[in-house]
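Q: Focus on the chain.
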Amino acid sequence: MTKTLRSSCPINYCLEQFGDTWSLIVVRDIVFNGKSTFGDFMESAEGISSKLLSNRLGRLVETGILAKEKDALNGRIYRYSLTAKGKELLPILHAMIVWGAEHGSQNPQLLAWARELKRDPAEADQEALQKPK
């Protein structure tokens, strides 16, 4: 299903892909929290409803941001992972983390991590994508 865009503006395209609270939270949870199943995402602190989560996962798969595969050990469970297109979102996540930590966080550890991320984003990408899931 191809969605008609409101305009050809690149910012509009991004907002139509991720202009909701939950899509980037799902991507964040995959990259930085090692989550990969519906149940994993339901445990996130933000408290997404199961209906909304199901919708967002479907949309992220449909747009090619996530891949969906049956679990090798339990065929009733699906695992979600970033596609190459999804991995291209990492610089956007980095910028949001740094900006959000610098302007909205009172947590010194989070601020220190955001500054390290700003200093060497390539290393942060490798660490996040290679950690055990």
